[in-house]
Prior knowledge:
The protein has 186 residues and is mainly alpha-helical. 66% of the residues lie in helices and 4% in strands. A hairpin with a 3-residue loop joins strand 1 (2-3) and strand 2. The longest helix is centred in the last third of the chain and has 33 residues, at 147-179. The protein is elongated and about 55 Å long.
Amino acid sequence: MKLLSGHTRTELSLAAAAAVSAALLAGAHLFERVGGFAPCILCLDQREAHWTALTVAAAGLVFARAFNSRLGAAAAVGALALVYAVSTGLSFYHTGVEHHFWPGPALCAEGGADGPVAIDSIAAALAGPSDAPACDDVPWTFLGVSMAGYNMLASAGLFALTAFAAGAETRRARETRTILSPSEKL
């Protein structure tokens, strides 16, 4: 089904996912560079999920527009649903750490490493806390929701969008496959 000047629902979902992930990444980097909020280890993991989503969405749009491949676009939107499911899980875990529902990873512990790390103690340094902020430290909230909480909401919404688009594309492919005669399938 073609929408908005020849773009399919799948293409619009890919474009929306790319735009929202790019905006979330831009916001995170602005908070870090302009606001002075250093990211914790879990924050960086959540950014990686959005960098992955941005890459997958861009690849899907290239398949859809440059190569005219609906199958490539459908695969990309399905992969995006998985990426956003992981992103939702990461931000849910981080939000739980912030609210002290469960402990964070050892790298997220309070306090940083003291002094320079000697070559013979690299393994011990990696097993202990880093100089990154503690993951349960919440430096900013709006309406009582932290950045990890907003990321969880955005990622869950993007998961729903891309899962719906993947499901619709799958149904459309099945309908098209059953309509074709045996000679057209070849």
